[in-house]
Design brief:
The protein is of the alpha+beta class. Helices cover 34% and strands 19% of the residues. α24 runs antiparallel to α25 and α26 packs antiparallel against α27. It binds one RNA strand through α10, β11, β15, α14 and β29.
Length: 924
Amino acid sequence: MEYNHKDIESRWQQQWKNDKTYSTEIDRERPKFYVLDMFPYPSGAGLHVGHPLGYIASDIYSRYKRLQGFNVLHPMGYDAYGLPAEQYAIQTGQHPEKTTNDNIARYRSQLDKIGFCYDWNREIRTCDPSYYKWTQWAFIQMFNHYYDTEAAKAMPIAKLIEHLDAKGTAGLKAACGKELDITAEQWKAMDEKQKSDTLMNYRIAYLGNTMVNWCPQLGTVLANDEVSDGLSVRGGYPVEQKLMYQWCLRVSAYAQRLLEGLEKVDWTDSLKETQRNWIGRSEGAEMRFKVAGSDLDLEIFTTRADTIFGVTFMVLAPESAYVAQVTTPEQKAAVDEYLATVKHKTERERMIDKKMTGVFTGSYAVNPLTGKNIPIYVSDYVLAGYGKGAIMAVPAHDSRDYAFARAFNLPVIPLIEGADVSEESFDAKEGKMINSDGPELKLNGLDVKDAIATTKKFIEEKGLGRVKVNYRLRDAIFSRQRYWGEPFPVYYKDGVPHMLDMDKLPLMLPEISEYRPTETGEPPLGRAENWCTAEGYPLELNTMPGFAGSSAYYLRYMDPHNDEALVSEEANGYWRQVDLYIGGTEHATGHLIYSRFWNKFLYDLGKVVEDEPFKKLINQGMIQGRTSFVYRVQGTNTFVSHGLKDNYDVQTIRVHIDLVNNDVLNTEEFKKWRPEFENAEFILEDGKYICGYAVEKMSKSMFNVVNPDDIVERYGADTLRLYEMFLGPLEQSKPWDTNGIDGVNRFIKKLWNLFYKGDTCLVDDSEPSAQNLKTLHTLIKKVTADIENFSYNTSVAAFMICVNELAKQNCHSRAVLSQLLVVLAPFAPHVAEELWHSAIGNTTTICDAKWPEWNEDYLKESTVNYPVSFNGKPRFNITVEASTPAPEVQKLALEHESAAKWLEGKTVVKVIVVPGKIVNVVVK
RNA sequence: GCUCGAAUGGUGUAAUGGUAGCCACGAGGGACUUAAAAUCCCUUGGUCAUUGCGACCGUGCGGGUUCGAGUCCCGCUUCGAGCACCA
């Protein structure tokens, strides 16, 4: 029997399917383990070799845990709502559901070929009504709750109404859009619309007028994590700021818990750091500056309360509500003109343009500590979204304020001893304070940190402001002007939004004739006929964003067919949370924040038992493309090999990856690739045409996409699996490079040759030798440790060593080889299963085997070779029994004849023996 | 600018503070073969030596701790990632 991957792999994949080998049920007899992959968006391009990297890693871990006796939940599904399917629908008129289903079918067939142990009974799709029913349900719950900042959890909105009925907003501790001051009488006197508007200020899912990232080309708003450098992440279109009335989720209410929760999870430091940056907690002080000659206060936030004596002016963001209030009639024309010019700039232009612009409002503020009047300016370097859009400017110690002060010729007062502010500001928070003694507060001589604390205390005592924590994390904008997304379970009665009753869910996505926005600019759902409740009330036209469906999918896998709840108490109580989550870092500030928020909300409601959804998280690196190049001599049809190209004036041309093998161009195929290359001629080196290469993103246009199907077809799934792991550390990004795949394929053939020679099965019942056992147990020990550390590349190396050694030892012992197969099974399940049955003769599947334990006794050396060093330089070796005690080794080393030479005329200072390793003699 | 990583042969990489370069790829040489493929064996960090043994230098740079540093500490350089007019 020869190793035939096609036959073996298709046969076993079929059998696993028939036997439902990997289907999982709750089993209280066994400990549970939940391994999850980030489910893919099924794009039209299909899977490329980068996708399976994480899937293979999680598959290995799942199979390993299963062999260790865990009840492993390892599901897969599809994040099926998304922009590409909709864009395609707009262009072709094809229903996005059709496109999506086609893509899913393709993904599934590709995944199946790699031999994953998913429980496909639990498959979910976010666009499936039985699934999005629970996305809609969660939204209704969020609408019906507010965040109690004292209890630090979500509470029913009824409790808030109770409070308003009794005391108005007095003493209300709730996360809100803006601080309201309403008495119980005022509240009770409100009509339904006013009450609704008031409650919106507190609901966790609320309608709000917010600045949104509007993308005209996509015709929709985007969340902050969907925008990068002022461009949309998908498509790269410009994004502008626009005030819109939108559904939002009050994620900001959970900022502190999202931050604290990071302490409890086992994620990489860099990912936690990314989330901490995104949440952006800053401790500071909120202070009020009186506007001279008016009873208006400017409220500002600062983390540098210590610099208050250096405030020489104030600056307002152009969008700030204060601008209109402080602008004097004389300055009105100038201010209006400035606002107009700012308005025409996009967010991106504002960011790129570093030139300081601004205008004086005509008013002055009073520095509460010095009593001095300071001018108030408007400038677009202040962000509207930060606090109230007003800052106190300390040019000496803030580079932006410094630039503005220089541009407008405003005074700069240094506050820190030794700081030279003649050329630039001194931003560091260190040093001793100067110029900071006022009538009441004296800071001179204090350290910056102490000065901050002293000032905070002072302003709090004097009622000038209060200590406050600010977060960068913003509420999530939850409306999209799109068709292909979850419909909101919302209808409007006299302009007031209401939630549908549970028995009306799921609210199904309606059919529409066209997927573009309507002529009147309404979202596509505006085209749906009868898009209203049975009573005739209009339904919401927006749909939910992509992250809605992915925020709780891991809970649904626990109980995917439940029609009564997102997840039953029983299933959630058993599976609890994801023990191991594998996916890319690109979701660090999106999905991984939203789903933590979503989970915490459900936790507050008592619907889930764990506060954090993902206990351990591993980020697999990205697989980049490796683009190959050929070099055409300018003006000819002659191509010169990479090593010789510097002798010519050449044009670099990307060449399709399929035409290149180990950097060698297949010149015949190349000629057929494009008509213009038909008569190409080549200048070869060593008889070959060697291509150059560059590492780029894997994409169709770069001709560097490698499809896993092709690898499976040629080498088999087991080779693909082993090779992807062999490529390097899991968490590292690396280019896809098939240059080493033959080595892995050779390994499998060598493994096969341990069991078969031609048609003869070599396996026998011979007693394993001590050497055999040492080789085997070295492997078991190494692989067990490696899997726990996700160090799969070194495991593959260990397999290669083991098989090479067993071949040299001519080992065919059933006892040894069967254990080798069990250890290999997570990595290369097909070939392991095949040999397990055909050569070892087992009748049960290898999945029912037990992970072997290594025996330390087999690993012990009978003799140990100690290199003996003098002053760190190795001089000779001594060989002693492994059991020889260290003092004895020391004695033998010093008595060795070579030692005598080195010790002549020298004094031994000390002798160090590292057991089993080294003897170091220190001489003087 | 702030934060977090990383840097080792021609390449991907490996090394609980203990003989740096495991395992592969590539390259070179050899065996088998009419020939090729496949397979197997040997060599492969650098320099020098090479009819023996070997010798010296080597983990981005400069210091330090240590009997001993790729690994730990301090200071740089370069690259990558995240955040960023967030006051």
